[in-house]
């Protein structure tokens, strides 16, 4: 009886992996290149047909140059998440590059889906994160060649300490770690300003100024 059950399981698993082409279920595949037009799912993007996969799916030049500027933070950001780099789908990895102009800052933000490992390529910067239970801050001054890790989901930041451009590369423990920037979450929304003032204990006039800065309404 036990032998029959094992044989049945061995027969079913390959069938399921063909019928359910998602990263966590494609048990007999080496990889699952994202089929982006089919949309995301809780298990990741569906797999692109093997016959349609080329070397270009595993290659990306998006971090070779400074990305678009994010105002008012004076930084350039380019990412290699699954939505831009389909080959990382299901592999639990992705990357990003940040270029900090003098005075540039990555404000308090979090990645709900993954931890971040930051590597300083050029310049000097301050970086740190805040714990969720005690609000304890862990911060360091980072120089060229230094690494710092930010645990998944925790608010963290970086800013340029020098007079020249600083550059950092980040890797993530997820193909799509997500990004929530605290300033945008608070002031780029359409909640009425008096409500934001109540829930943040920030003066309503200041809230209105910040909503104007970040493009919010209400």
UniProtKB/TrEMBL annotation:
Broad class of where this protein is predominantly found: secreted
PROSITE patterns according to UniProt: GERMIN
Superkingdom: Eukaryota
Residues annotated for oxalate binding in this entry: 111, 116
GO MF term set: manganese ion binding
Database matches in CDD domains: cupin_OxOx (cd02241)
Annotated S-S bridges: 32-47
Record flagged with keyword Metal-binding: yes
Signal peptide: 1-17
Positions contributing to Mn(2+) binding: 109, 111, 116, 156
The entry's keywords: Apoplast, Disulfide bond, Manganese, Metal-binding, Secreted, Signal
Annotated InterPro entries: Cupin_1, Germin, Germin_Mn-BS, RmlC-like_jellyroll, RmlC_Cupin_sf
Domain Cupin type-1: 61-208
SUPFAM superfamilies: RmlC-like cupins (SSF51182)
Keyword Secreted: yes
One GO location term (cellular component): apoplast
PANTHER family: GERMIN-LIKE PROTEIN SUBFAMILY 3 MEMBER 3 (PTHR31238)
Function according to Swiss-Prot or TrEMBL: May play a role in plant defense. Probably has no oxalate oxidase activity even if the active site is conserved.
Family: Belongs to the germin family.
Protein name per its UniProtKB record: Germin-like protein
Species whose genome carries this gene: Panicum hallii var. hallii
